[in-house]
């Protein structure tokens, strides 16, 4: 494998972005040539054509539900060319949901290569500002998920797990000096808590070699160091005695740790001294990992609320937001690592896929309301180089992995251009309603949860007149809050059961995992006075809106103080879920 060169990676990026339009045309041509015999493309009559005009006129915009019949056939073992020219042998489990259940997206070798391209580009720019020494390691809080086998024998797991299981990915990361200090036995542990403990242990053992600290998401970094506050004395004891805690019971982990854990009283004393000298754990990361150059992970969108706590742990270390992508594919790289996460932008790599952008405008009423309920006026999609600075768009992707004119559902703002490729600022998930950290629940998911819980009210002859939701982050951990206006009073025990049912009805993998490890708190059900939603309508009308335009907001932005005040002042009862324990 050739030695990775930061200078060559930056030069290649500069060349590709100077004529992004031509690169986009070539990329689309290559995608369509590789997948020319795919049933999906034949269905719409593309007939082997590879030019942009024919592609846009034949192939419609799509969402995940349009592809589900094809993906289901793949999962069932159909090896014919359905979405791609070559058979798909792996699926990624997206944390997003459509019909109240996780969705599958194809995982291909091309996605692996795109991941390396994006990673190499952003690493090159990071390394120019914060050089990483050769042979150094990274403290990475990464965790695999359980791999399932579909009825047709296709392996399905998260995109992260799909990557870490491939030697090509690990070789590429090692070449970029971002080798995880923990072995596979820790990354692929079946027990999250034991895996986290051992990530910390390995990080401490190799403390002098660690030059970067990483987790996929900011909340994972915060959670890791909150856990460290609880177990640091146990970790010191393990290092001092050279014996792993009996709380670690996974045999493969114990066997792996035994190979490197030796009695080291000097290191244990040093860690203890540093921990005891900290003020409320401020600056714990640079204190224990003095050679770390930065802290790295996704820090935009729903991760922003964790930045204050993460900065507390990081002290003066820079926080760098990771690249912009999804389970479906990659969009852009962070080439400005010195920019704070709140202001980060992502430069689109024009060779990783074919990109379009749907221009979006809000109605005047919603602009006045500052509502998170996103109902945009759309225009026809434009190409990568046709976007305008300052305007907002929805991202549309065509990938090597069989997604064609796929609406990603992300709203972005064009912050500027690097050469001829745009730099995007992530604004929000267009369809996302409820999200605290890695959980992603849509309006449809909320509706399905409410419908499930409403069945418990049938015996009471009580109906849900209307409902909405919000998130409560004033306490830690944050939680979902569901508001119901009922037709009449209901039994207390029944309403408590409804709160439990709502909590269990959100099936998104991110929510389930976060509830189990208590990084999301118990769901709260609040019962409203009759007439509450009429009061919200009246408020909407005072802003100049019309009754014909009004839609009950299924999610109330925490910044929407007026509507939240209406809901809070009209709350009569509150019930906290006990579905995941107290």
UniProtKB/TrEMBL annotation:
Task: Please give the InterPro entries that the UniProt record associates with this protein.
Answer: GH3 (IPR004993), GH3_C (IPR055378), GH3_M (IPR055377)
- Organism encoding this protein: Urochloa decumbens
Task: Report the Pfam families cross-referenced here.
Answer: GH3, GH3_C, GH3_M
Q: Which protein is depicted?
A: Jasmonic acid-amido synthetase JAR1-like
Respond yes or no to whether keyword Hydrolase is given for this record.
no
Q: Which residues form the GH3 C-terminal domain?
A: 444-557
Q: Does the keyword Ligase apply?
A: yes
Q: Which UniProt keywords apply?
A: Ligase
Per UniProt, residues of the GH3 middle domain are: 346-429
Family label: Belongs to the IAA-amido conjugating enzyme family.
An example of a GO molecular function for this protein is: ligase activity
């Amino acid at each position: 494998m050739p030695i990775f060169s930061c200078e060559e990676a930056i030069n290649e990026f500069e060349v590709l972005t100077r004529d992004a339009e031509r690169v986009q045309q070539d990329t689309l041509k290559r995608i369509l040539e590789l997948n020319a015999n795919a049933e999906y493309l034949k269905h719409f009559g593309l007939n082997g054509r590879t030019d942009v005009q024919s592609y846009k006129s034949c192939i419609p915009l799509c969402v995940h539900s349009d592809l589900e019949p094809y993906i289901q056939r793949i999962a069932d073992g159909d090896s014919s060319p359905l979405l791609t020219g070559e058979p798909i042998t792996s699926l990624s489990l997206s944390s997003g949901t459509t019909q109240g259940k996780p969705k599958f997206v194809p995982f291909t070798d091309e996605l692996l290569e795109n991941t390396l391209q994006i990673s190499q580009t952003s690493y090159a720019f990071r390394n120019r500002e914060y050089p990483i020494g050769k042979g150094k390691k990274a403290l990475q809080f990464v965790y695999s998920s359980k791999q399932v086998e579909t009825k047709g024998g296709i392996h399905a797991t998260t995109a992260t797990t799909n990557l870490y299981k491939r030697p090509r990915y690990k070789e590429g990361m090692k070449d970029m000096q971002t080798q995880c200090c923990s072995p596979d036995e820790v990354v692929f542990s079946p027990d999250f808590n034991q895996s986290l403990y051992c990530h910390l242990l390995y990080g401490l053992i190799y403390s002098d070699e660690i030059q970067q600290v990483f987790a996929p998401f900011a909340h994972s970094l915060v959670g890791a160091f909150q856990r460290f506050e609880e177990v640091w004395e146990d970790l010191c004891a393990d290092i001092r005695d050279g014996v792993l805690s009996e709380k670690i019971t996974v045999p493969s982990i114990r066997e792996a740790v035994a190979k490197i854990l030796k009695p080291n009283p000097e290191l244990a004393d040093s860690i203890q001294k540093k921990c005891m000298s900290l003020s409320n754990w401020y600056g714990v990361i640079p204190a224990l990992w003095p050679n770390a150059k930065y802290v790295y992970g996704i820090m935009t969108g729903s991760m922003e609320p964790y930045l204050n706590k993460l900065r507390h742990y990081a002290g003066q270390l820079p926080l760098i937001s990771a690249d912009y992508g999804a389970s479906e594919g990659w969009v852009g790289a962070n080439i400005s690592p010195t920019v704070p996460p709140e202001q980060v932008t992502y430069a689109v790599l024009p060779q990783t896929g074919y990109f379009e952008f749907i221009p979006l405008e809000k109605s005047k009423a919603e602009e006045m309301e500052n509502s998170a309920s996103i109902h945009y006026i759309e225009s026809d999609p434009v190409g990568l180089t046709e976007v305008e600075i300052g305007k907002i768009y929805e991202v549309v992707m065509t990938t090597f992995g069989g997604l064609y004119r796929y609406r990603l559902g992300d709203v972005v703002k064009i912050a500027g251009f690097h050469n001829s490729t745009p730099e995007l600022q992530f604004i929000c998930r267009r369809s996302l309603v409820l999200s605290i950290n890695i959980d992603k629940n849509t309006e449809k998911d909320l509706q399905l949860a409410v419908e499930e819980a409403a069945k418990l009210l049938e015996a009471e002859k009580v109906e849900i007149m209307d409902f909405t939701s919000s998130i409560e982050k004033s306490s830690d951990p944050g939680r979902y809050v569901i508001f119901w206006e009922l037709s009449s009073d209901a039994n207390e025990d029944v309403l408590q059961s409804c709160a439990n049912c709502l909590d269990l009805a959100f099936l998104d993998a991110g929510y389930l995992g976060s509830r189990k490890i208590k990084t999301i708190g118990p769901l709260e059900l609040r019962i409203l006075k009759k007439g509450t939603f009429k009061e919200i309508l009246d408020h909407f009308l005072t802003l100049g809106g019309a009754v014909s335009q009004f839609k009950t907001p299924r999610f109330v932005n925490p910044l929407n103080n007026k509507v939240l005040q209406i809901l809070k002042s009209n709350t009569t009862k509150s019930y906290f879920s006990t579905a995941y324990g107290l």
